[in-house]
Amino acid sequence: MCTQTHNHYLCGCKQKAEFEQCDRLYDLGVNLQCAVAASKAKVMRSYCATHLLKEGKATVVYPIKKRQTGQAGVVPEESAGPEGTEA
Ligand SMILES: [Zn+2]
Ligand SMILES: [Zn+2]
Questions:
Q1: Among 47, 55, 80, 87, which one has the highest count of C-beta atoms within 10 angstroms of its own C-beta?
Q2: pLDDT by residue for the chain (87 residues), tens digit each?
Q3: Are 39 and 7 in contact (CB under 8 A)?
Protein backbone atom coordinates (compact mmCIF):
# COMPACT_ATOMS: atom_id res chain seq x y z
CA MET A 1 0.00 0.00 0.00
CA CYS A 2 1.24 3.47 -0.80
CA THR A 3 2.16 5.65 2.13
CA GLN A 4 1.32 9.27 2.82
CA THR A 5 3.34 10.84 5.59
CA HIS A 6 2.16 13.79 7.64
CA ASN A 7 4.40 15.95 9.78
CA HIS A 8 2.94 16.43 13.23
CA TYR A 9 4.33 19.56 14.85
CA LEU A 10 4.45 20.37 18.51
CA CYS A 11 2.05 23.28 17.97
CA GLY A 12 -0.59 20.85 16.76
CA CYS A 13 -0.25 21.63 13.06
CA LYS A 14 -0.20 18.74 10.63
CA GLN A 15 1.34 19.12 7.23
CA LYS A 16 1.23 16.76 4.33
CA ALA A 17 4.73 15.46 3.78
CA GLU A 18 6.25 12.93 1.42
CA PHE A 19 4.21 10.41 -0.50
CA GLU A 20 5.68 7.02 -1.28
CA GLN A 21 4.37 4.77 -4.01
CA CYS A 22 4.35 1.13 -2.91
CA ASP A 23 6.67 -1.45 -4.48
CA ARG A 24 3.79 -3.23 -6.21
CA LEU A 25 2.76 -0.25 -8.31
CA TYR A 26 6.28 1.05 -8.60
CA ASP A 27 7.40 -2.27 -10.06
CA LEU A 28 4.51 -2.17 -12.53
CA GLY A 29 5.80 1.19 -13.63
CA VAL A 30 2.37 2.73 -13.96
CA ASN A 31 0.88 6.07 -13.05
CA LEU A 32 -1.25 4.67 -10.24
CA GLN A 33 -1.41 4.88 -6.50
CA CYS A 34 -3.43 2.71 -4.12
CA ALA A 35 -7.07 3.77 -3.68
CA VAL A 36 -6.38 4.11 0.03
CA ALA A 37 -2.94 5.12 1.20
CA ALA A 38 -1.48 4.15 4.54
CA SER A 39 -1.07 7.13 6.80
CA LYS A 40 2.15 7.73 8.70
CA ALA A 41 2.84 10.43 11.22
CA LYS A 42 6.28 11.94 11.47
CA VAL A 43 6.54 13.51 14.89
CA MET A 44 8.46 16.76 14.67
CA ARG A 45 10.19 18.09 17.75
CA SER A 46 9.32 21.75 17.26
CA TYR A 47 6.55 24.10 16.26
CA CYS A 48 6.00 24.56 12.56
CA ALA A 49 7.49 27.48 10.63
CA THR A 50 4.20 29.35 10.89
CA HIS A 51 4.17 29.23 14.66
CA LEU A 52 7.83 29.98 15.23
CA LEU A 53 8.60 33.69 15.21
CA LYS A 54 11.59 35.13 13.46
CA GLU A 55 14.43 36.19 15.68
CA GLY A 56 14.52 39.96 15.85
CA LYS A 57 10.88 40.27 14.80
CA ALA A 58 9.21 38.56 17.74
CA THR A 59 7.68 40.96 20.23
CA VAL A 60 7.12 38.29 22.84
CA VAL A 61 9.42 35.35 23.49
CA TYR A 62 8.26 32.54 25.75
CA PRO A 63 9.46 29.05 26.51
CA ILE A 64 7.82 26.12 24.77
CA LYS A 65 6.94 22.98 26.65
CA LYS A 66 8.77 20.14 24.99
CA ARG A 67 7.35 16.70 24.40
CA GLN A 68 7.48 14.40 27.39
CA THR A 69 8.74 11.50 25.33
CA GLY A 70 11.41 13.62 23.73
CA GLN A 71 12.38 11.74 20.64
CA ALA A 72 11.05 12.65 17.26
CA GLY A 73 10.34 9.83 14.89
CA VAL A 74 7.94 8.15 12.54
CA VAL A 75 4.98 6.26 13.94
CA PRO A 76 1.97 4.70 12.27
CA GLU A 77 -1.03 6.98 12.47
CA GLU A 78 -4.40 5.99 13.86
CA SER A 79 -3.26 2.83 15.61
CA ALA A 80 -6.63 1.48 16.61
CA GLY A 81 -5.66 -1.28 19.00
CA PRO A 82 -4.46 -0.96 22.58
CA GLU A 83 -1.17 -2.59 21.59
CA GLY A 84 1.68 -0.46 20.38
CA THR A 85 0.56 2.75 22.05
CA GLU A 86 3.18 3.63 24.59
CA ALA A 87 1.76 6.94 25.72
ZN1 LIG B 1 0.27 1.41 -3.39
ZN1 LIG C 1 1.92 25.37 13.73
A1: 47
A2: 999 999 999 999 999 999 999 999 999 999 999 999 999 999 999 999 999 999 999 998 989 888 876 566 777 776 555 554 455
A3: no
**Distance, CA 19 to ligand 1 centroid (Å)?**
10
What is the value of pTM for the model shown?
Answer: 0.69
Judge contact between 37 and 3, C-beta under 8 A: yes
Residue 47: nearest ligand to its CA? 2
The Å distance, Cα 50 to ligand 2 centre, comes to 5
Q: What is the distance between the alpha carbons of residues 49 and 38, in angstroms, rounded to a whole number?
A: 26
Contact 74, 41 (CB under 8 A): yes
